[in-house]
Amino acid sequence: MKIHIDKRIELAFLYISIMGIAVRYWVLPDIRWWQQALLFIVTMIMLNAVWIFHYVFNHWLNGRFPFERSVTKRIVIQLIGSWSVVKTVLIICSMLVIHRIVPSLSESFNRLTLMALGVGIFLANVVISLGFIANQLFQRWQADQLRAAQLEKEKAQVQYDNLRNQLNPHFLFNSLSSLDNLIDDDPALARRFLQQLSRVFRYVLQHKDRELVPLETELTFIKNYVSLLQTRFDGTLSIRCQIEPDDTERLIVPVTLQILIENAIKHNVISEAQPLPVLITTDHEYLTVSNPVQRKKQIGTSNGLGLQNLTLLYQFLTPKPVEIQDTDNQFRVRVPLVG
């Protein structure tokens, strides 16, 4: 156990010791300088000793009588136990100081003075003990908050990973179906399609354990992904990027763009009569993915958790929220750029 005394505590002890010099000059005008110096040193030693005792006693109680067992019992033991020890030690030290250093005070040291000293020590002890108790409870509360936040983050990460794992089989199935049609009709295009498909899944596998990736890396991945989609939808889906050059080093969660584009594909009609344009832009603070609303009458499989999980995950990475703007004509998702 490492004993730590805060600088503010030491400054408080120094202030009390200096005030003691002033009080002694007021009560004992004839006191000598060597007595003052000696009493100043004794006061500093006693204050530090009391603080160290409380520190050690509090640490010992954390092991023997933790708050989890009984808060009331712990507080009573800490208050009464510390007061009994500190009172006994300080009274003995006070009597030694009076008889050895300032014998002129022995005449005024009586039972009333002893009772007043005991009450003063008790009140000071209560303040110190309650300070340690409050600090201990506050630290435990902070630890619980951090633990809860970490569990929420892990939960969001698991949900996000599940979402990615759901996307990949659907995407692979659709891509293989498109590839099957291309093999006989256009073998050269089928070969390029397969190469792009391998690059897409290589990216997903390489970055599946990373929390964040540079936007530039994500955009490189999305070019191959977009090529696959344009082949799959035969030109009825267009994806355009307008990225500020300074934003390419900012960070986002891997496959964020894939999730947002797949969300647009899932909920909107895409046909020769109604092609779907998707626009990806940045404004130094946010990455925005927008598309006109062409809602499908019926959506195959959607539990509505995709954007919710993505939003929850970003809450643990940046104080800026994910913004979802849904109007009659336009659907827009704004994802904060990190870093």
UniProtKB/TrEMBL annotation:
The keyword Transmembrane helix appears for this protein: yes
Keyword Protease: no
Protein name: Histidine kinase
Domain Signal transduction histidine kinase internal region stretches: 159-235
Single Gene Ontology MF annotation: phosphorelay sensor kinase activity
Organism phylogeny: Bacteria, Pseudomonadati, Bacteroidota, Cytophagia, Cytophagales
Transmembrane annotation, as ranges: 12-28, 34-57, 77-102, 114-138
UniProt xrefs under InterPro entries: Bact_2-comp_sensor_kinase, Sig_transdc_His_kin_internal
GO-annotated cellular components: membrane
